[in-house]
């Protein structure tokens, strides 16, 4: 009997059994029907209908395409931890090869060398960019990576400190996730002040002390400003015996000071800026740290070794840190991670190369400074608000209420962040720079 | 797939690293940095390859990688089923590529899909409310436990312990500990199920929750689930459902009906969205009405055809910077809608039939039954890891080995519904040949794979975690 199923056949289209095969298998197992195989007592059996109508592939593609088309077609000048860069077509082509896409965690390294090597190369590129010798092969996103960093500080700290100091200008979502990640520990979170968008180093030094477990700073900051005194922040952390955790992103690392050179003990942030198009907040958490903390690192690590033939081969390593071995004593509960996103980021980095990444990062500075200056020339607007260098993003102060301006801009086809009653935030990259003139014009009309 | 196809010359490596193909260093100042020197790095070293070289490198790497589309992938508790391609096309829709800070008003399409998925999952799980925010199953566990904790705190309950059966996934222990709970390990009964007396002894005024998967990790349905629920609830605890094995029950039993108060769904397992080499996944959490006010923020609600975001009244806050893994959620929606009631029921039926059929065909002992979608065979006096390596030479992926721990030399096998009768015969043949192999054969396996047996102990003793550390050594 044919195994081919018509689109409208009953049952799952992805079960390859012909009726005759099903009958033969039931016979072999020794039951009359599939139902007999379900060892579910009557009192908890579900006898109702779920009420989910099946659709054909053709119908669903049309339906979902129509549903998603209800999203307004806006040009996004949005950033704040989720940045859009152009992803070369070949990244889609290569990463969507089924051998990558439909594979699993590499528990049998002899037949998963391909993904292991790709993850090893991802780790290697993060090591080059951060200057720190150990990078894991992904956290969920920047916020969860920060949470894991705080928990790391709790495990490795040399002093009795329990306070995690974070900038008062911190993405509110990041703060909310951090609060949950430290909820089950003795750690607490407190803020230190900022000075014109950057760390107020003197104020931070006054706050830091024996009670400090970790100091977190960002470069670029959530406002897009570039920090100028990170080494001093590193020294404050050192003096307090606290860890210095630096938040950043994979593109910024192409240009800005390498975190290791300013004394960072841990680097977290987003790596999804390369490889992943805007995906409603899907991320790729960066995590790199010093050699001393190797055995306390959360998440998976790929190591190089040798196989029996003496050739170099790769394998998941130091798994005694992980939950499937250490259970409640594991360094983290992370199991499923963002491996495929890391693969895409590695591919994008490989395509850019060193010169391409430096060029892209430089463009992020130039475009932001140029757009800020043009908006700043408009009446009723101050931009950039902070007298700093900027990376991709900057703050705009408006005389008119900011929500009303954002709403007017949206009506003209542009999305920007509202971050206060009279403050907007604008993010520009090579993807939307071509619409910068139109944005300036829309701003001019809105204010 | 022929494992040899990707072999690369007679070199001392199977494929050179990107860094071995090129190592370009760029002087950042000379490259025209727009920033003052003291704010930038001096130089940057990364491979700089032409696109054809990059394409060849990753194509070759893909050829050195096993996947569901390469052949059987029966890893127990991982549910490696076929992933329909059309869902990838749906996920690639440019209208779905949106920034998470867009206004709800401008994202009615995205919110409609999210709302629809919340609704589907609530129906499938028998739950009242669902959050889609957790980006993986373990993140869902952590979220569920945070919600349970918030519920207890709001009701003035002072509870410090979470009970987890010894057979549970390691993530259960880790997630409960991460939320600050002491973990009480519950030994399995002689029949591989929860021992009610042991449970009675374990629960107390300190019990915040019992975390349970059903069917459990050897595929056994916890037939006493109604009594288990009573014992936990009478002690004032909550019942948590680990959704890892939900693929065995679709349309036949629902965690909500069994008395579970909170659960997570591994949509990347049950609803066939690709695991992508270890992720991304998504771990939505469903709860009963009592727990709904504590779910993470924001959730999606509908009002007269209009979708909006809202903050649950006593929300635990956030467990992800934004809204979790949207592309995975979108694919899960597409998969569920493709199958509908009958398709989901059929998927479970065939998953269970396949596991039972395969078990009939293999020569090794299976200590516990009757099982649903997966079974724990034992390799007996053989080392399960060795048997797994021997199976690789027969062109299949082996089962999960040495877990759960209460089955000696366990080979936890889950063929899923996607395997055909022919493919199950291949799997059984590989199983039996590997079990029958003599010591010398086991020791030399695998011999037909890309790489030979890898010395994992050495890799852990001398960690080389980047190409920089390889260079330093050479």
Automatic annotation (TrEMBL), chain A:
Q: What class of enzyme is it?
A: oxidoreductase
UniProt xrefs under Gene3D superfamilies? Aspartate Aminotransferase, domain 1 (3.90.1150.10), Type I PLP-dependent aspartate aminotransferase-like (Major domain) (3.40.640.10)
Give the Glycine cleavage system P-protein N-terminal domain ranges: 14-432
Q: Which molecular function GO terms apply here?
A: glycine dehydrogenase (decarboxylating) activity
Keywords, A to Z? Oxidoreductase
- NCBIfam families reported for this sequence: PRK00451.1 (NF001696)
Please identify the protein, giving its name as recorded: Aminomethyl-transferring glycine dehydrogenase subunit GcvPA
Tell me what organism the protein belongs to.
Halobellus rubicundus
UniProtKB/TrEMBL annotation, chain B:
Stretch list, region Disordered: 1-44, 442-474
- Which Pfam families does the record cross-reference, listed alphabetically? Aminotran_5, GcvP2_C
Entry's Gene Ontology molecular function annotations: glycine dehydrogenase (decarboxylating) activity
Q: What InterPro entries does the database record attribute to this sequence?
A: Aminotrans_V_dom (IPR000192), GDC-P_C (IPR049316), GDC_P (IPR020581), PyrdxlP-dep_Trfase (IPR015424), PyrdxlP-dep_Trfase_major (IPR015421), PyrdxlP-dep_Trfase_small (IPR015422)
Mind listing the UniProt keywords for this protein, alphabetically? Oxidoreductase, Pyridoxal phosphate
Task: Tell me what this protein is called.
Answer: glycine dehydrogenase (aminomethyl-transferring)
Q: Which Gene3D superfamilies match?
A: 6.20.440.10, Aspartate Aminotransferase, domain 1 (3.90.1150.10), Type I PLP-dependent aspartate aminotransferase-like (Major domain) (3.40.640.10)
Where do Basic and acidic residues bias regions lie?
Answer: 1-24
- Chain ranges of the Aminotransferase class V domain: 146-276
EC number of this enzyme: 1.4.4.2
Residues in domain Glycine dehydrogenase C-terminal?
A: 347-443
The protein's matches in SUPFAM superfamilies, at most eight in alphabetical order, are given as:
PLP-dependent transferases (SSF53383)
- Write out the catalysed reaction: N(6)-[(R)-lipoyl]-L-lysyl-[glycine-cleavage complex H protein] + glycine + H(+) = N(6)-[(R)-S(8)-aminomethyldihydrolipoyl]-L-lysyl-[glycine-cleavage complex H protein] + CO2
What organism does the record attribute this protein to? Halobellus rubicundus
């Amino acid at each position: 009997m044919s195994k081919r199923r018509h689109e409208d056949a009953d049952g799952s289209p992805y079960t390859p059994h012909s009726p005759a095969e099903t009958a033969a298998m039931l016979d072999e197992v020794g039951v009359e029907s599939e139902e007999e195989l379900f060892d579910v007592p009557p009192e908890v059996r579900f006898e109702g209908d779920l009420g989910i109508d099946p659709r054909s592939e053709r119908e669903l593609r049309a339906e979902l395409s129509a549903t998603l088309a209800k999203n307004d077609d806006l040009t996004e000048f949005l950033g704040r931890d989720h940045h859009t860069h152009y992803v070369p077509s070949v990244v889609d082509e290569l990463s969507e090869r089924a051998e990558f896409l439909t594979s699993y965690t590499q528990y049998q390294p002899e037949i998963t060398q391909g993904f292991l090597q790709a993850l090893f190369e991802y780790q290697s590129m993060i090591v080059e960019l951060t200057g720190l010798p150990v990078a894991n092969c992904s956290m969920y996103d920047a916020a969860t990576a920060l949470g894991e960093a705080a928990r790391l500080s709790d495990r490795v700290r040399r002093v009795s400190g329990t306070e995690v100091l974070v900038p008062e200008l911190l993405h509110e979502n990041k703060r909310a996730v951090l609060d949950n990640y430290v909820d089950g520990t003795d750690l607490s979170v407190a803020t230190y002040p900022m000075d014109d968008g950057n760390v107020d180093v003197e104020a931070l030094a006054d706050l830091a002390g024996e009670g400090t477990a970790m100091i977190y700073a960002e470069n670029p900051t959530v406002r897009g400003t570039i920090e100028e005194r990170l080494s001093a922040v590193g020294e404050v952390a050192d003096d307090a015996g606290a860890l210095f955790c630096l938040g950043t992103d994979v593109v910024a690392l192409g240009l800005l000071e390498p975190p290791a050179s300013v004394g960072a003990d841990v680097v977290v942030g987003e790596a999804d800026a390369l490889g992943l198009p805007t995906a409603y907040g899907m991320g790729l958490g960066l995590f790199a740290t010093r050699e001393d903390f190797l055995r306390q690192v959360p998440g998976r690590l790929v190591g190089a070794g040798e196989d029996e033939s003496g050739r170099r081969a790769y394998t998941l390593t130091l798994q005694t840190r992980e939950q499937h071995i250490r259970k409640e004593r594991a360094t983290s509960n992370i199991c499923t991670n963002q491996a495929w996103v890391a693969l895409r980021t590695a591919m994008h980095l490989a395509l850019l190369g060193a010169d391409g990444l430096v060029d892209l990062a430089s463009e992020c500075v130039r475009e932001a400074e140029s757009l800020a200056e043009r908006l700043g020339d408009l009446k009723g607007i101050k931009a950039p608000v902070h007298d700093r260098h900027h990376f991709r993003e900057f703050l705009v102060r408006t005389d008119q209420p900011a929500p009303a301006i954002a709403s007017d801009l949206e009506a003209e086809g542009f999305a920007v962040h509202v971050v206060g009653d009279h403050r907007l935030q604008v993010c520009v990259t090579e993807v939307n720079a071509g619409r910068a003139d139109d944005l300036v014009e829309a701003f001019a009309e809105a204010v | 797939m022929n494992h040899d196809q990707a072999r690369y010359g007679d070199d001392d490596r199977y494929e050179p690293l990107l860094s071995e193909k090129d190592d370009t260093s760029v002087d950042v100042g000379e490259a025209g940095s727009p920033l003052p020197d003291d704010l930038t790095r001096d130089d940057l070293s990364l491979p700089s390859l032409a696109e054809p070289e990059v394409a060849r490198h990753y194509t070759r790497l893909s050829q050195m990688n096993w996947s569901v589309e390469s052949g059987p992938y029966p890893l127990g508790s991982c549910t490696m089923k076929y992933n329909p391609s059309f869902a990838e096309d749906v996920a690639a829709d440019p209208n779905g590529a949106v920034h998470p800070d867009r206004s709800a008003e401008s994202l009615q399409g995205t919110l409609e899909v999210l709302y629809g998925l919340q609704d589907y999952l609530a129906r499938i799980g028998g739950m009242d409310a669902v959050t889609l925010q957790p980006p993986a199953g373990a993140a869902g566990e952590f979220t569920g436990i945070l919600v349970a904790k918030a519920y207890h705190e709001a009701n003035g309950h002072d509870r410090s312990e979470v009970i987890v059966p010894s057979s549970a996934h390691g993530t259960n222990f880790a997630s409960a500990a991460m939320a600050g709970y002491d973990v009480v390990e519950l030994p399995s009964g002689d029949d591989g199920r929860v021992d009610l007396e042991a449970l009675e002894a374990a629960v107390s005024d300190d019990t915040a929750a019992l975390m349970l998967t059903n069917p459990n990790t050897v595929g056994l349905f916890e037939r006493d689930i109604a009594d288990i629920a009573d014992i936990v609830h009478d002690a004032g605890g909550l019942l948590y459902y680990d959704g890892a094995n939900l693929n065995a029950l679709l349309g036949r039993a629902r965690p909500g009906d069994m008395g579970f108060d909170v659960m997570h769904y591994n949509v990347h397992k049950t609803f066939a969205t690709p695991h992508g080499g270890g992720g991304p996944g998504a771990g939505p959490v469903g709860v009963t009405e009592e727990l709904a006010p504590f779910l993470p923020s924001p959730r999606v609600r509908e009002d007269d055809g209009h979708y909006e975001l809202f903050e649950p009244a006593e929300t635990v806050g956030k467990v992800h910077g934004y809204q979790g893994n949207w592309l995975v959620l979108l694919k899960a929606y597409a998969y569920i809608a493709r199958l509908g009631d009958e398709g989901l029921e059929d998927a479970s039926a065939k998953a269970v039939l396949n596991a039972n059929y395969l078990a009939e065909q293999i020569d090794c002992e299976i200590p516990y039954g009757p099982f649903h979608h997966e079974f724990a065979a034992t390799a007996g006096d053989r080392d399960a890891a060795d048997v797994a390596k021997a199976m690789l030479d027969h062109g299949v992926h082996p089962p999960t080995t040495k877990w759960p721990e209460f089955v000696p030399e366990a080979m936890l096998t889950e063929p899923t519904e996607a395997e055909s009768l022919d493919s199950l015969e291949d799997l059984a043949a590989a199983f039996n040949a590997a079990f029958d192999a003599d010591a010398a054969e086991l020791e030399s396996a695998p011999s037909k794979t890309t790489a030979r047996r890898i010395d994992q102990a050495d890799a852990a003793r001398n960690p080389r975690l980047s190409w920089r550390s390889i260079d330093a050594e050479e």
